[in-house]
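Appendix B, Record 12. Input sequence as logged:
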Amino acid sequence: MTKKIKYLSPTGVLGVGFSEDHFMAALSPDLAFIGCDAGSTDGGPANLGGNKPFFSHGAVKRDLRILIKGARQVDIPLMIGSCGGSGGDWNLNWVWEIVQEIAREENLNFKTAIIESEPDRELLLQKYREGKFRALDPAPEIDEDTLRDTDHIVAMMGAEAYQEALANGAQVILAGRSTDAAIFAAIPVAQGFPPGLCWHAAKIMECGGAAVVSMEKPEGMICTITDDYFELEPVSPTQSCSPLSVAAHTLYETGDPYMMREPGGVMDLTHARYESSSERTVRVSGSAFHPEPYTVKLEGAKKTGYRAMVLGGVRDPMILGQFDSWFGGLQDSIRNNIDAVYGESMAGKYRIDFKLYGHSGVLASREPTLGQTPTEVGVLMVSQAETQEVAYAIAGQAAHMVLHHTVPEWQGLVSNLAFPIAPHFWNLDPAYQFVLNHVVELDHPLELHRIRYEEI
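Logged structural output:
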């Protein structure tokens, strides 16, 4: 009899939703576990730096309720990685509180493992002094003060943290920042299936049903791994996988479609083969995994100030025909106005970032249509300063200057920017930036991660 393991990923990220009916139909006693990723850096550093969840309390609770009840119904582990969006300690405990709410409301009992991913700063400093840090490309310059002063730092755990929690009887695992694939590789690797197949399957499964031919809405995927291959089957009966759709997933969020690093080694997909096993399913074989020294990636977010924003659109063809010179003069005009109003006391205390949508807002200088006259241009201006008051004041000055900045062909007072929202400038949340893009070599996989257990 062929040895195999089967598991379920209900959606690509916790809180985005999925069809409860399809999920319940996919539940069966032969599933080994349910896994779900909950995090991303897509939204930038503010989720980690500012203790913010990626999705709302209601959205996360809805998905978690279905997952927890389903997992307990068939008595299999449920593993959630990068809880709360960024996996910081605040985000992790936010999800833990939601889990407790669900357990009380549904009268459920289970053992929970809570795996923290914000490492002890003194331990990080020790590793830094020992030369255990390696910069990724691109990486900012760092020093010991970076490790001391950054608001929040997380270490992306590998599969071993999940394996440890399972070995200690956890039925629900809530993990801080984690590599997405570690959630799904932990159990198959621990049970002795080929690591290349386990990690390659996990890389696909962390996105739920994203490897289907056409993902009209978020749904899940079932994976079956044997000693020779793994097989993917969409949870939704209306979706299907093809060899192309599955192979194309290797291009998603990767710098190299053949070599992909995880904490303990490298996935090697050079010889991976993709073939249809039915009209809806795809079989993958040939994936390899090469062990390497154990490293985990660090992400750090630090507050850099406060922001305010102006947004408007330019539609005047006279301006658009000479947009570059108009925009260059506008920037000079804004600076001169701020100097005149606030004097030297404002010098060096603010900055304004511009995005020009319909002109070069996405590709900047690489935009292939630069030099062509656009139909309209959206002007986004974001001011940043050390205080919210100053950021707001600068945005107000900039809004007024862009509204009336003219061209030689027009005489008198003009209003050349259409504002879509009133008021036409407003405060944003505090600004953060990522200050670490490094890996650190560990002596053992759990060195930076603490696990606590709670009985519900």
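The mean pLDDT is 95.
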